[in-house]
Amino acid sequence: MKLLSIAIPCYNSAAYMENCIKSLLPGGNEVEILIVDDGSTKDNTAQIADEYEARYPGICRAIHQENGGHGEAVNAGLRAATGIYFKVVDSDDWVNAEAYKEVLETLRSFVMGEQTLDMLITNFVYEKQGAKHKRVMQYRTALPKRQLCTWKDVKVFMLGQYILMHSVIYRTQMLKECGLELPKHTFYVDNIFVFQPLPYVKTFYYLDVNFYRYFIGRQDQSVNEQVMIGRIDQQLLVTRLMLGYYHSAKITSYKLRHYMVRYLEIMMTICSILAIKSGTDENMEKKKQIWEDLREQDLALYMRLRWGFLGQGVNLPGKGGRKVSIACYKISQKFYGFN
After folding, report:
1. Phi, psi for 87 (deg, rounded to 5)
2. What are the two backbone dihedrals, phi and then psi, of residue 128, each rounded to the nearest 5 degrees?
3. 0.70 exceeded by the pTM?
């Protein structure tokens, strides 16, 4: 059995996937690198995956499937994973070598010890193309460092500070037990990946190292603002699914509930901001509809989201409302790192 399974969803990724794979190879035999070719047809992604499997048998595995989108590629990686822990690294991203060593040492210490670790959290760096200053998402205000924690140990998550897919490594069996299965042909499902499992996470550990490097800057990237506006229906779908997971979850911790509500707040804000930025009546109607549906389904949650700072900011009329909307947009930018 491997210590860590790492899934790399690849779709026409030949131009950059090798940089990602090479950054993960120093994990050696403790790691399996699952290179998921999600039906690539425009380049030699599939060939590169097969070449790495041949060159690094027992470490790299090529998985080929019909195109199902990022979520289905993650699903395929999880189904194939034999590691005790599971991580997703996107094909245009990479990891820091020194931090990687610490991550593996930490996971190894829990496997060899008596305590069970459900989720390891690390920092990630926004590698924004052309930016001189690299912004780091870290969690020092929110989580105790280098100690096994439960939700009662959580301190304060600042506005715009969230645990994202780049931050987490999960215990594989826990992910399977919680029934995680991301929707096909849908972008932004990484939000589900870091939201649905949370009620099943009993223990976590914050390793304050800048492990994951999150590349931003390609014009076709899913977090490009215009691309996101064009895919607003997928953002709305993901948000609706997350609302459903929240309603059906058994959440016993007040701090966890508070965190999940704050996450839903940013998701509703992003949907609303995208609708406003699009400038179309059709998308403004979709914005109105998701808020009305939430009010009918869960009035208490609606009141919390609608009358919070962000909810008010994307629903206020006039020039004053527009100013607050811009402030909310800047918070959304920090969340997604819009390019």
Report:
1. -135, 145
2. -80, 125
3. yes
